[in-house]
């Protein structure tokens, strides 16, 4: 189960808060942000049922990072902040498994967990980020774009891959989401970004993380492990 990149399409905040009862939850070793593409291979019977029901009802499910437990087998304990996922593409396999492509939509907070279905569900409140306090244009957007460009260049050099974003959003919310998606940092650090209350704080958090990772990547070519083709610990997700 892995995640992919996409330029976030949604602002990630709005003026209303919606309560959802019994939202299907998919605990993963992945932190999903609004606008992020997430390909999933669905093979466990409980999640095949969940996907079947979501498709039948044209509904979403929630992706939550696992706090304790594993993705497969026994029920895992998730963090209480996640993101709803909309199924965009479906490939049904002959043996009942699915390959699906989802996109992150709206952030939520879990109020309580439900165990009345084969899969985990929960009562949740959608939790939009508070919008930026300052007027447009936000001078930090240029700073984030510059840091993100440097980060992608250094990450590509360190890993021997080609990573490029041709167009970056100009609005603070989608730009902050994009930076959070691209950052190759531990999941708990990504969860901390997802749990920040405002777009302003998310922008600040992404700037701090990008600066930290850029400093680490700047010294990466001098590390002996990279000469052997290894990826440094700070870049693992």
Question: Please, could you describe this protein's structure?
Answer:
This protein has 237 residues and is of the alpha+beta class. It folds into two domains: 19-126, Archaeosine Trna-guanine Transglycosylase, Chain: A, domain 4; 140-235, no CATH class. Helix content is 32%, strand content 27%. It contains six helices and six strands; from the N terminus they run ββαββββααααα. The protein has helices spanning 45-57, 140-159, 172-182, 187-194, 199-219, 224-227, and strands spanning 19-28, 37-42, 61-68, 77-92, 98-114, 121-126. A five-stranded mixed β-barrel has the order 1-3-4-5-6. α2 runs parallel beside α3, α2 (140-159) packs parallel to α5 and α3 runs parallel beside α5. The two termini are 13 Å apart.
Which helices and strands appear, and what pairs or packs with what?
Layout lengths: L18 E10 L8 E6 L2 H13 L3 E8 L8 E16 L5 E17 L6 E6 L13 H20 L12 H11 L4 H8 L4 H21 L4 H4 L10
Parallel strand pairs: 1-3
Antiparallel strand pairs: 1-6, 2-5, 3-4, 4-5, 5-6
Helix pairs in contact: 2-3, 2-5, 3-5
Highest CATH level, the class of the largest domain: Mainly Beta
Q: Give the H and E element order.
A: EEHEEEEHHHHH
Output the CATH topology of the largest domain: Archaeosine Trna-guanine Transglycosylase, Chain: A, domain 4
- The CATH superfamily label of the largest domain reads LON domain-like
Radius of gyration: 18 Å
N- and C-termini, Cα separation: 13 Å
| Number of H/I helices | 6
- Structural class, judged by helices and strands? alpha+beta
Number of domain modules = 2
Q: What percentage of amino acids are in beta strands?
A: 25-35%
Q: What is the average of the pLDDT values?
A: 84
Largest sheet: 5 strands, mixed, barrel
Query: How helix-rich are the residues, as a percent range?
Result: 25-40%
Q: List unreliable stretches of 5+ residues.
A: 1-15, 223-237
Strands ordered across the widest β-sheet: 1-3-4-5-6
Counting DSSP E segments of at least 2 residues, the number of strands comes to: 6
CATH architecture of the largest domain: Roll
Which oligomeric form is depicted?
single chain
Sum up the overall morphology in one term. globular
